[in-house]
């Protein structure tokens, strides 16, 4: 079987001492930032981008991927023990996880979250491996018109699934596309939006924006709502769920895995949306919905499985089509570009060791994470006692060093500070920054494909509608838009995110 | 007229402003034709779209009511981003250790629970860690002290 042969290529690539080490580093870092509230995977990956210069590309991608799914494991610890989302995607876990901890069932909540995540992660990786080949073959049939339509679909999906105002999400995407165009135009060599500043002719960096908007702005917002944290349980008596709890969790884990895997692939989806949707589903199918919010174990098992499944499957569109479905994957595009890898269907054929190595490493990483999170839970709890006033200057420092070393230029640090301020204003105005990140990465790709498609069709825009795959993608995009303006769906969409407030 | 939904209204104004700026700048770039798009084509389309979205958002805001925009915490913003800028300003000349200390103390002042002794201790720990990790470990190019090294 092809799949087995491919996986064995991956196994060989992933199980070298160096790659295992970077997988472990990524998982530990991911758990760390997952546990710590106030810093997420986007800022961390951005911070570490320059560090990966020195690494071989496989090791770099393995480490960065580990941070993303590692954060899904770590986030649940804080949610359960402190009632704070260590990670945005664990926000719903607080509802029932913290209640369980108050009732002395914190250990059970933690182990169900970790084991559920492991199961979901394994399924997610398998799906990724299984879908890689057919998706890649499909993608190789794509011309510029198809790519352009696919990006339209992706961006519209990001709008539909983003929470908050639709108009604002669309505006943020367009603004992101514009920011992506800053710098020298590849076709004409003309510097656009550069104001004669040499640094701007190279364009804005994905790390500057990500660190400013997701790192600095986040810190500014956190400083405004300085609160105290209290640990629900300093010691955990029993780590394992009771038989009854296990019986309740197993189907919830299954459902969470399915919903998470699906939402991970969708543009604009990913771990955050998956956990909210899974919580809503669990509440709906449960025969005892009144127990939710009072320590129902399904409310932990479902969302925690879902967010990890989604973290794995969101790699599918990135690795096969070269289109990032969410902000974290947008940064992975940045990471691949640093190593001169153009994300897209050709990665699998031109660089099979990297492609399959990454996939296999994700399963190994999930295994490491169960070990890191369950027996070592005491260590992570200790970390939570570090007060935020000591934590945030350290985060700032690592951001500064990271962004400076991108090109050894302090200009990058100033730009990051500027984006920190802008990002802070966006939060104040309730403008979600994730769609902007997607737009930023897709901006140049979209323009390039639009130009090429129009050149091939001699300026006839009908090319997007006469080519069947392109037409199909556009119909899907229009369908999505129509659904979203339909009143029934609007209400549903608000419901999904209602738990957050 | 009374602004009933300030968050949407100001967001609309902001998007309109960005769109307008993009539009004005893009008029300096050749438009090209649909078949051979110049560097001004796509930016103009996007700028125009963004202006429309901004106007739509601002107009719609009068039909909605929403909470006021919470005030900007200028002091915290200034200290945090000021600390970051100071880091950038001194790192090349004064070195990583001084820059770290400046960043930790200035940005630390933004917290209501600031404590100088604690900040100094964490400066020492963090600058040691940063030197070991980034300069010794990852071989990044930074001067460590004002006199080089």
**C-alpha Rg of chain B, in Å?**
24 Å
Please, what is the average pLDDT of chain A? 83
Please work out how many helical segments of chain A DSSP would assign: 24
- Number of self-contained structural domains of chain A: 1
The fraction of residues assigned to DSSP E strands of chain A is under 5%
Q: What is the string of helix and strand elements of chain B?
A: HHHH
Secondary structural class of chain B: mainly alpha
Q: What fraction strand of chain B?
A: under 5%
Q: What's the number of extended β-strand segments of chain B?
A: 0
**Alpha-carbon Rg of chain A, integer:** 22 Å
How many strands, what sense, and barrel or not for the largest sheet of chain B? none
| Unreliable segments of 5+ consecutive residues of chain B | none
> Approximately how much helix is present in the residues of chain B?
55-70%
How many domains would you count in the coordinates of chain B?
Answer: 2
Written as H for each helix and E for each strand, in order along the chain, the element string of chain A is: HHHHHHHHEEHHHHHHHHHHHHHHHH
Spatial shape of chain A: globular
Q: Based on helices, strands and strand pairing, what is the structural class of chain A?
A: mainly alpha
As a percent range, the share of helical residues of chain A equals over 70%
């Amino acid at each position: 079987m092809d799949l087995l042969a491919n996986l064995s290529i991956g196994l060989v690539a992933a199980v070298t001492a160096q790659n295992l080490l970077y997988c472990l580093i990524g998982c530990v870092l991911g758990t760390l930032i997952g546990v710590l509230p106030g810093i997420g995977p986007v800022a961390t990956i951005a911070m570490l981008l320059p560090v990966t210069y020195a690494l071989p590309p496989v090791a770099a991608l393995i480490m960065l991927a580990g941070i993303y799914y590692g954060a899904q494991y770590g986030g649940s610890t804080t949610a359960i023990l402190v009632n704070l989302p260590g990670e945005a995607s664990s926000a719903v876990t607080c509802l029932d996880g913290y209640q369980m901890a108050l009732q002395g069932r914190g250990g059970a909540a933690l182990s169900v979250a970790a084991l559920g995540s492991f199961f979901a992660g394994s399924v997610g990786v398998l799906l990724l491996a299984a879908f890689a080949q057919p998706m890649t073959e499909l993608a190789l049939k794509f011309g510029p018109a198809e790519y352009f339509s696919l990006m339209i679909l992706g961006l519209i999906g990001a709008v539909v699934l983003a929470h908050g105002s639709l108009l604002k999400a669309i505006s943020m995407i367009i603004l992101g596309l514009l920011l992506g165009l800053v710098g020298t135009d590849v076709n004409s060599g003309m510097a656009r939006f550069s104001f004669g500043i040499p640094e701007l002719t190279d364009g804005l960096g994905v790390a500057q924006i990500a660190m400013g908007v997701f790192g600095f702005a986040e810190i500014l917002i956190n400083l405004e709502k300085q609160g105290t944290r209290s640990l629900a349980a300093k010691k955990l008596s029993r780590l394992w769920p009771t038989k009854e709890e296990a019986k309740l969790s197993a189907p919830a884990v299954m459902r969470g895995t399915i919903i998470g895997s699906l939402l991970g692939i969708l543009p604009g989806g990913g771990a955050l949306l998956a956990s909210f949707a899974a919580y809503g589903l669990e509440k709906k199918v449960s025969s005892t919905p009144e127990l939710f919010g009072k320590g129902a174990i399904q409310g932990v098992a479902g969302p925690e499985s879902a967010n990890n499944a989604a973290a794995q499957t969101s790699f599918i569109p990135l690795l096969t089509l070269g289109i990032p479905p969410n902000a974290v994957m947008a940064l992975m595009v940045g990471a691949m570009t640093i190593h001169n890898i153009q994300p897209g269907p050709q990665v699998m054929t031109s660089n099979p060791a990297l492609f399959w190595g990454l996939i296999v490493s994700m399963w190994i990483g999930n295994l490491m994470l169960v070990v890191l999170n369950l027996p070592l839970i005491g260590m992570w709890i200790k970390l939570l006692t570090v007060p935020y006033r000591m934590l945030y200057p350290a985060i700032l420092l690592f951001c500064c060093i990271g962004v400076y070393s991108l090109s050894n230029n302090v200009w990058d640090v100033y730009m990051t500070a500027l984006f920190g301020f802008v990002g802070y204003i966006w939060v104040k105005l309730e403008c979600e920054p994730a769609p902007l990140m997607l737009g930023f990465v897709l901006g140049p790709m979209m323009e390039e494909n639009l130009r090429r498609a129009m050149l091939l069709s001699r300026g006839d825009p009908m090319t997007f509608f006469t080519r069947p795959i392109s037409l199909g993608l556009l119909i899907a995009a229009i369908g999505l838009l129509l659904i979203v303006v339909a009143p029934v769906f609007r209400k549903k969409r608000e419901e999904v995110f209602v738990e957050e407030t | 007229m009374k602004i009933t939904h300030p968050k949407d209204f100001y967001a609309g104004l902001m998007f309109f402003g960005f769109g307008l700026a993009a539009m004005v700048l893009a008029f300096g770039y050749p438009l090209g034709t649909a078949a051979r798009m110049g560097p001004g084509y796509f930016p103009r389309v996007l700028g125009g779209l963004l202006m429309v979205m901004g106007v739509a958002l601002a107009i719609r805001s009068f039909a909605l009511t929403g909470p006021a925009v919470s005030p900007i915490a200028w002091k915290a913003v200034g200290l945090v981003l000021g600390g970051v800028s100071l880091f950038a300003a001194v790192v090349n000349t004064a070195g990583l250790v001084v820059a770290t200390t400046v960043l930790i103390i200035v940005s630390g002042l933004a917290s209501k629970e600031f404590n100088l002794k604690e900040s100094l201790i964490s400066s020492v720990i963090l600058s040691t860690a940063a030197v070991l990790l980034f300069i010794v470990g990852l071989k990044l190019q930074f001067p460590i002290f004002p006199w080089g090294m």
